[in-house]
Design goal:
The chain is α+β, with helices and mostly antiparallel strands and 685 residues long. 50% of the residues lie in helices and 20% in strands. The protein has 17 helices and 21 strands. The strands form five sheets. It has a five-stranded antiparallel beta sheet with strand order 2-1-5-4-3. Strands 11-10-14-13-12 form a five-stranded antiparallel beta sheet. Strands 16-18-19-21-20 form a five-stranded mixed beta sheet. Strand 4 and strand 5 form a beta hairpin. Helix 1 packs antiparallel against helix 6. The protein is elongated.
Length: 685
């Protein structure tokens, strides 16, 4: 779904405002919640501490009122007169006036008169000095009880007590502003969620606060230390969590109202901005659509605003350049069509799927088809190339595919046309452009008809093959006769004759090698060089090559050093062809190495590959000769006129090695040249 620019601008404005408000809301809510949590904890803890201080003041007040009672003359007079009834009446009035729960007088450690409230346990009161004692009252509520002796009656004591009960807690709650509960330190409530806070307060003797989600309250517990610094009471305050949540909710409501107002304002401003921005952009869009439809004659309208004016000027400049470029392309297209129509060679272009997208008239005449019929067809079906065995090279050896990865290629193809005519053509394939990425990118091929030239080559090859074959038979017989003659001559009785026979044998060997290379070259050019596939023992192959070339080495007094890994691994291939490889390499080294020099045949095993090389001490490779020496009929610029050979040996070596799945390379080394052959070894079963 596509949206208008105005809609996107409005949505962008509103979205940014909402995102900002949402971000502020989230952060503010989090901070406010955290602050509210901390303030609630501080508030309940402060209330608990304040209530504990009020309790301490109440204790001091009880002690002071006990002393005040012991100093009252009326109390002392009634005690001396042993008038318990009147003393009880006085004590009742004193308790009401002093807001005491217990008001009594003891004589000799025994109760004598009281204000009417039941008296708690009085043991230990005699030893208490300056502080109130927490005792358990008859009703179960703890009582702060203080005593003071009468100055004139040491055996009598005035008692003042304050019950730590519900009304007392309510008075403390009014003072601190939060509900207050006071518990004895021995009070335990295992099922109460607040018991954990109480236990922490008992152990630390310090105020403890926390949020209890189960009770939805913030609770603080402040321990009250009694005699001996032991915890005697726990002062507890609480605050509902709803009060904190209510503050946060109120803030969020106000923030939501602000967001609604900001959204409305941003939507209105976005609408106004969208109208201002989209009008010139819409005009530029219409101009771009016209140019896209091919209308490059209409100028681009000017626009207001710095950015849109720059865009309009850029589009106008682009329109003018496109107009000029289109005219130039049309001119070049006309020139190209004139050139392609005027050359003798056929030219056709294919796409990434090798379907024909262009065909010049010469190619159409060569293939015997009409141009409109050829377009869109697979080039293999149109050309219909055939090998000698009747198969098509389109799947394995297509020059068009090879050109895409290896650069320009040239191949001789034998075509079977739809009319039944057979033609021999040279197909030169160019790689696609560097920026060719789409399926319709063109790749051009040139067709050169060489049917008559091919017939001439076949006639030549037939003559060469026949002549070479006729040479091989008498040469083989002559070589056998020379070997028999050499074996019958004695080295001591006929040294001159034996030397002449040896020279005759070497000349026959060179002539035989020359004929073999000539025949092999004809087979390579005709595509008839087949390789047998069998297990080959490399040591036997090298031994045969050394034996065949030993007379040539002896003629030039050259030494052959063989250093090969033992044992040599077997390879898969054709033994005679591989022997021919090393015969040619040794003969090449023999020809270029100086008289009396040393030729080395070495090797090494590297993984699944055996590497063998021949080194000589000759003049080395010519400049740029690392590749050129493997071309047919290549002769070294420094080769002496008297040297024999036609420059076919190394080309034959390269062809045989590559058909065995290996590689051959020429290398320059100190003091000569090196020719290295790499072959894949036979993997052990």
């Amino acid at each position: 779904m596509r949206f208008r620019l105005s809609t996107l601008l409005i949505a962008l404005n509103v979205g940014l405002i909402l995102a900002a408000v949402a971000a502020v809301s989230v952060v503010a809510a989090g901070l406010l919640g955290q602050q509210g949590h901390e303030q609630a904890l501080a508030r309940v803890e402060l209330a608990a501490v304040s209530a504990r201080e009020a309790l301490a003041r109440a204790e001091e007040d009880v002690v002071a009122k006990a002393r005040l009672l012991s100093e009252r003359p009326t109390a002392e007079r009634l005690l001396r007169s042993r008038s318990s009834t009147e003393l009880e009446s006085f004590l009742s009035r004193f308790a009401v006036a002093a807001r005491l729960s217990v008001c009594a007088v003891t004589l000799g450690g025994h109760p004598f008169a009281a204000n009417g409230s039941p008296l708690p346990e009085l043991s230990g009161l005699q030893t208490l000095s300056g502080r109130a004692m927490l005792v358990s009252g008859p009703a179960g509520a703890p009582i702060l009880l203080a005593g003071a002796p009468f100055a004139s009656l040491p055996e009598a004591r005035a008692l003042a007590g304050l019950a730590i009960d519900g009304p007392f807690a309510e008075r403390l709650a009014d003072q601190v502003g939060l509900p207050v509960a006071i518990w004895s330190s021995e009070h335990l409530a295992p099922g109460d969620p607040r018991e954990a806070l109480r236990q922490r307060a008992r152990e630390s003797s310090a105020p403890v606060a926390g949020r209890l989600d189960g009770l939805a309250q913030y609770v603080a517990v402040a321990p009250y230390l009694g005699e001996g610094g032991k915890v005697s009471l726990l002062v507890e305050t609480s605050l509902p969590t709803s009060e904190v949540r209510g503050s946060v909710a109120h803030f969020l409501r106000r923030l939501g109202e602000l967001a609604l107002v900001a959204t409305a304002v941003s939507a209105l401003s976005g609408l106004l901005l969208a109208r201002r921005v989209t009008r010139p952009i819409g005009e530029l869009r219409e101009a771009a659509e016209r140019a896209g439809r091919g209308d490059l004659a209409t100028p681009i309208p000017r626009a207001s605003g710095a950015e849109t004016a720059t865009l309009a000027a850029t589009m106008e400049e682009m329109r003018r350049r496109l107009l000029a470029t289109t005219a130039e392309l049309k001119r070049r297209q006309a020139e190209a069509e004139a050139i392609l129509g005027g050359i003798r060679e056929g030219v056709f272009a294919v796409d990434r799927e090798r379907r024909v997208r262009y065909l010049n008239p010469q190619a159409a005449r060569l293939l015997g088809v009409r141009q409109e019929e050829a377009l869109g067809r697979f080039c293999g079906d149109l050309l219909n190339p055939r090998r000698a065995d009747g198969t098509r090279p389109c799947d394995e050896a297509c020059p068009i595919v090879h050109a895409r990865f290896r650069g320009p290629t040239e191949a001789v193809e034998h075509l079977e046309l739809e009319s039944g005519e057979r033609r021999a053509v040279v197909v030169v394939s160019a790689p696609p452009g560097a920026d060719a990425v789409s399926a319709d990118d063109r790749q051009f091929q040139v067709l050169r008809d060489e049917t008559e030239l091919e017939a001439t080559r076949r006639l030549r090859d037939a003559v060469v093959a026949n002549v070479s074959h006729e040479f091989k038979t008498p040469l083989a017989a002559q070589l056998a006769s020379i070997e028999l003659l050499a074996s019958s001559l004695s080295e001591t009785r006929h040294p001159e004759a034996l030397e002449l026979v040896g020279s005759l044998e070497r000349g026959t060997l060179r002539l035989t090698q020359l004929v073999d290379n000539l025949l092999e070259s004809v087979r390579i050019e005709a595509g008839q060089l087949s390789i047998r596939r069998q297990t080959v023992a490399l040591d036997e192959v090298i031994e045969e090559a050394v034996e065949l070339t030993s007379p040539l080495l002896a003629q030039r007094e050259q030494q052959l050093e063989v250093e090969l890994p033992y044992p040599l691994p077997p390879v898969v291939g054709d033994p005679p062809r591989l022997a021919q490889v090393f015969v040619n390499l040794l003969a090449n080294a023999n020809k270029y190495a100086p008289v009396g020099s040393t030729i080395r045949l070495r090797g090494e095993l590297a993984g699944a590959t055996i590497s063998l090389w021949v080194e000589d001490q000759g003049p080395g490779l010519p400049p740029g000769g690392e590749t050129a020496v493997f071309e047919r009929f290549f002769r070294s610029p420094g080769e002496e006129p008297g040297e024999t050979g036609m420059g076919l040996g190394l080309a034959i070596v390269k062809s045989i090695v590559e058909r065995h799945g290996g590689t051959v390379a020429a290398e320059q080394h100190t003091g000569g040249s090196r020719f290295r052959v790499r072959l894949p070894v036979l993997e052990a079963a």
